[in-house]
Design goal:
It contains nine helices and two strands. It is globular, with a radius of gyration of 18 Å.
């Protein structure tokens, strides 16, 4: 008996392979890795915000903290595997309450934009709406970063880039291969330039 795969499944696998090859899965050359390590030594520690991500008031109990963190993950009616995970579990403790330690200078925003072009555009598209060529056949589809960047915390975006999609059921590669400073510059670019103005 001859077994066949649906054409859409084959195309999805090929697109994902192409995407991971083109994006480099966040990998770096040894020279770039040494430079990243040197930059990481100079990167300031992320600032901790209040325990509540976007609400801005101190909760009265641990349960209230989790509820408030979860409820402000994304706009009502918008979901992705990561958003669903965060709504159910909150974002991981190590990323909760982080705020970007990188100063919002023109140079840092420009660097973040260049990193976005190199690391994110293939799937998320130039406007960050999840409509990049490499993301068209992915299931689940890439997140609308322009929408999320105006809603979620710095820590949420940093978590997404650092951990990638493995724990939440998406194909997004981890960007641990680029320096922490570069990941924060990406967060800065998304928050300052990419997000949809409300």
């Amino acid at each position: 008996m001859k077994s066949t795969f649906p054409v859409s499944a084959v195309l999805s696998i090929l697109a994902a392979a192409l995407l991971l090859t083109a994006a480099g899965c966040g990998e770096q050359t040894p020279e770039a890795e040494k430079k990243s390590e040197a930059v990481a030594e100079k990167t300031p520690e992320p600032k901790k915000e209040a325990a509540v991500e976007a609400v801005g008031t101190e909760p009265t109990s641990e349960e209230t903290t989790k509820e408030k963190i979860v409820e402000d993950v994304a706009p009502d009616g918008y979901t992705t595997p990561r958003v669903a995970y965060a709504r159910k579990n909150g974002i991981p403790e190590e990323f909760r309450g982080l705020s970007n330690p990188i100063e919002a200078t023109a140079e840092n925003i420009e660097t973040g934009g260049k990193l976005f072009l190199r690391q994110c555009v293939m799937c998320h598209g130039t406007g960050g709406k999840g409509d990049g060529l490499g993301g068209k056949s992915l299931n689940p589809p890439p997140s609308n970063l322009a929408l999320l960047a105006g809603t979620v915390s710095d820590g949420y975006l940093f978590w997404a880039m650092t951990e990638g999609g493995k724990t939440v059921g998406s194909l997004m590669p981890s960007l641990k291969g680029i320096s922490e400073e570069n990941r924060w510059q990406l967060v800065l670019y998304m928050k300052e330039e990419l997000r949809e103005k409300q």
